[in-house]
TrEMBL record, chains A, B:
Keywords: DNA-binding, Transcription, Transcription regulation
Pfam family, one: GntR
PROSITE patterns xref list: HTH_GNTR
Transmembrane segments: none
Protein name per Swiss-Prot or TrEMBL: GntR family transcriptional regulator
InterPro entries for this protein: GntR_C (IPR011711), TF_FadR/GntR_C (IPR008920), Tscrpt_reg_HTH_GntR (IPR000524), WH-like_DNA-bd_sf (IPR036388), WH_DNA-bd_sf (IPR036390)
Coiled coil feature spans: none
Source superkingdom: Bacteria
DNA sequence: TGCCAGGATATTGGATACAATTTATCACCC
DNA sequence: GGGTGATAAATTGTATCCAATATCCTGGCA
């Protein structure tokens, strides 16, 4: 019996275009956790997952270990894994990491950004303007940020940055699920892009730090209120 | 037959004080990779590792997956895993990440540092002064940095920071193995500690950024020279 | 001589069955 | 009521088998 209806649909839709079964399971589970298809705290029972994916337990265990290393699952020895919990403290943690990584990525990338990159960022802003679907919005936002960082030439840094953008997005979806989705103004993104076009690295870094910091602050306020009451 | 003599000794000495076999294998392998006991590029054959550790292949596979997620091993489907290679590009990457994370960790931690913390940092500097063993030196250096960041109250940020301190240390050991060990002056550490004692966050962050940046630059120069010739 | 095809080989990837270990629960007795 | 031991359920680990695939090597061919 499938533990989770949403996950089953995700598995059915998913293209197993991966090199190994373990990677397929890991990618699908990761998406399910990040998009909120599986709620925080949900037990990830090996047997159930194996059945849902139609595979044996071995690739499932490998996938769970990888999710643990990415802080998307928590292991309790001999009790099993659960989807990572959401907390105000962890949200602030992710925010702090973003505020550290993203200005660095932007500063390294900015001098190498091409006109095509900047135009693509502009298009992404236009798409975000008036986007009604929070999931699509998160993806566009992520792509906008990553477009600006893409030329940093630092694969590790970019991977870490994207990983924490995704983690932040998970938190945002969680907030939207509770409070409803209210699209944000694109003014901050536009100002950031303008600074990039002008080649003003200091100003761009300042803006991105402020932008990320504000988002983290809003989120933390919501989460703390939720934990208090 | 054991693939690696050094690893066998590490396994023999290691206390399996871990919750599960997979975690024991992972921790031991991670230490072996980080300390250079297993050289970059070494194949990590499942069967051999299982025999060396005296366990079956499953916990070994779980351990390898975790090492992959930490960028300490590289997977090639149906060819197996190898110890992560060392390159100038990756060294610069790690340096950039440290330069992003450590000032953030320090800024968050500094206001909460206690007199005991600062005294312990001072002791660590004294120990480093004249330390002849590069391995011990790396550990002391890491503990010095982490002591200053410890009060940040951001577990994720600190874990990431320590992870990349360890990665940088691996590179440093590699350099020492090639060029011989030459102890560095503790002046930069002392200046950093002084700024922390004075509660001067801006100066402390500036110093730590400079300190990390210089270390990364030296390392990159060595690695680029090595790759060129 | 150079090169491509195809098979041999070794290793990983995955499935399955079973034993061991640990945790949590819950009745039971003092 | 609280501690205690049996019990159930889950993960963890082992052993073994087979499949898939990358690499290597050899032989045929231009």
């Amino acid at each position: 019996m499938a533990v989770n209806e949403g996950l089953s649909r995700l598995v059915a839709r998913a293209q197993p275009r991966h090199r190994t079964t373990a990677e397929f399971v890991e990618a699908t589970l990761r998406e399910a956790i990040l998009t909120g298809v599986i709620a925080p705290g949900t037990p990830l029972r090996q047997e159930d997952l194996a059945e849902t994916f139609g595979v044996s337990r071995m690739p499932v265990r490998e996938a769970l270990r990888q999710l643990e290393a990415r802080a998307l699952a928590e292991f309790h020895p001999h009790r099993g894994a659960v989807v990572a919990e959401i907390s105000a403290a962890d949200g602030a943690d992710i925010g702090a990491i973003r505020m550290a990584l993203e200005p660095m990525a932007l500063r390294l990338s900015l001098p190498a950004l091409t006109a095509a990159d900047l135009d693509q960022a502009e298009e992404l802003i236009a798409e975000m303007d008036g986007e009604a679907d929070p999931g699509r919005m998160g993806e566009l936002n992520r792509r906008f940020h990553m477009t600006l960082y893409a030329r940093a030439g630092r694969p590790r840094l970019l991977a870490l940055t994207e990983q924490h953008l995704l983690a932040a997005d998970r938190y945002l979806r969680f907030q939207f699920a509770a409070l409803g989705y209210r699209p944000r103004s694109q003014d901050e993104h536009r100002a950031l892009l303008a600074a990039c076009r002008a080649g003003d690295a200091d100003e761009a870094c300042r803006l991105v730090t402020e932008h990320v910091g504000q988002a983290a602050e809003q989120l933390t306020a919501f989460l703390e209120g939720r934990e208090a009451g």
